[in-house]
Give the backbone structure.
Amino acid sequence: MKGWTGNIMRINLSDKTYKKEPYSEEFAQKWVGGRGFALKILWDELKPGIDPLGPENKLIVALGPIAGAPAPNTGKCVVAAKSPITGGYGDGNLGTRVSIELRKAGYDAMIIEGQAEKPTYISMQDDQIEFLSAEEIWGKGTYATNDWIYKKHGKSAGVLNIGQGGENMVLYAMIRSLEGRAGGRPGMGAVMGSKNLKAIVVKGTKDYPLADPAEYKRIGTQDLKKVGEIDKKTGWSIQSTNGVLAWCNEVAALPVHNFRKTHHPDAWKVDGVRLNEARVATYGCPNCTMRCGITIHDAEGHESELDYENIGLLGPNLDIFDFPQVASLNWLCDEYGIDTMSAGCVLSFYADAIEQGAIDGDFKFGDAEKAKELLTMTAHRTGTLGNLLADGSRKMAQKIGKNSIAYAMQVKGLEVAAYNCKFIPGMALAFGTAPIGAHHKESWIITYELRETKRESYGPEKAQKVIDLQRIRGGLFEYLPACRFPWIELGWGIENYPIYFNKATGLNWSLDDFWKVSDRVYALMKLFWAREFPDCQRSDDYPPAVWFDPANADTEGPIAGKVLEWDKYNQLLDHFYNIRGWDDRGIPTLKTAQALDLSSEAAELMKTFKLK
Ligand code: PTT
Ligand code: SF4
């Protein structure tokens, strides 16, 4: 087998043992890596119904055949587990040196199981693992933790770590790396914390097992250079991801006031131009020539790295348009290791619920100082309120009642990304059908939808486009894994990726071979859902009800008087299910599962769940 190392490192925190385990070429070709590996391992090894925050859950760190080796933006890594916030399969993708070091250590994945008795961190050097005390850094934020680890292990180490949010099992705690990157929105940091695992440190010294190393290196480094040149020419990284904020405001897609409004006259104060003007420094992931991490000084003087999602949800969504204050909220989320996106939606939901009279409280939209206090309470689970906020908006709504679930901005428990779909049916479908909850990473149809199709259409072409994008974004880029930004932001051809893959593995795959893997991965994520929730139904794929409420329609602007329509959304969902070969509950049929080589998984599921 070439390209893949053929090895997984299994680490047990309960009894401090570890084992190098080979995997077969058949497994490699069926699941490729990253999300594919993680999902299949969790499917095979987790008993349905286990507590995501108990020792039986497993944390997977997964790479693939081109991860780490030089080619455009391959410094990415997938972290996955059963999600504590959705109860289904959960994962995230973050830039880290672990993608380089773990592959150089001779492994494509780690399976971390059990629970350490005391705060621990793992240090891996090639085939050796040490279980080390993390008591000195337990209770510390991610910045101090990272510094402490760099001092002990050097800056060349790959490091993943958690902050207080993960330690206290905030359901949307993330894993952090490189002092500026974060991944695992559906609570991967909480899973790490539940295992008493503060950090993972990796160093490797071996060569990548490439089929054609000279040719791979030639093409990979040449293309890395070309991507950097395109970035310079287009100027994308001048505003980076926040370039989209002004556009969202213009087309009425910005989340404002817990998504009740879609645009705001002060939005320019936190747009991409202002971000670039306030820039202090620029950061990036390994193997990247279009570094997108822009930092600015926050209100307390910290350097805070900001992306569009963070700004949209911690800024306009909370009616906060003061950039240093938005940066402060972002810095606190990074320090505590909690997801900025969920945190922004949780706080906006709390302010909205107070405004609606559903709950008593003294937090108002626009109050940045109080928002900081609430984030600190959340990360430490301080008192009843801290605990309420730490459990995410779906659980909050279940506790608050009074139909507040209608404006809890989440799908399957995971809070929505910063695109207000009050009148954007295709993007609403993308959120609704995202198998890990409302993440934009699965399918970002919004620009296509607004630029190339009629916004008001619920036609099958939108369902098809959502699926096409899921195949690329939630599929290919998540199981290679590699950063999707060269493709989506700079138009770097998707056809380049089979070239890298084939030079790495010696295979001869076309894009169609990849789409079959993507469809298999999507089907198994849904079978995983059905295994955890045998009473699952199509309403699991519904976006928040407030987007359908005529009383919530804009009173002015480009979409005045317009909201989504339930019967039409259901038709769109049917188009989606028909194209995918899923039943009317949104679960793959037996025939579809068999066509995707998932017969054994389907047979196992059939013990507890009837596939149609
Ligand atoms: C991702 C999600 C995103 S997606 C953002 S901003 W974005 C938020 N970033 C957070 C952060 O920062 N700190 C924090 N405490 N919470 C945060 N929550 C949010 O998390 C990220 C980039 C970005 S910036 C995006 S879109 C792209 N995402 C990719 C992806 O998902 N897959 C892939 N193959 N390539 C991608 N490239 C881009 O990477 P999650 P990162 Mg992240 C600080 O993981 O769980 O998907 O959450 O990875 O290394 O920080 O790079 O406008
Ligand atoms: Fe990382 Fe941004 Fe480069 Fe992607 S474009 S690899 S997220 S720095």
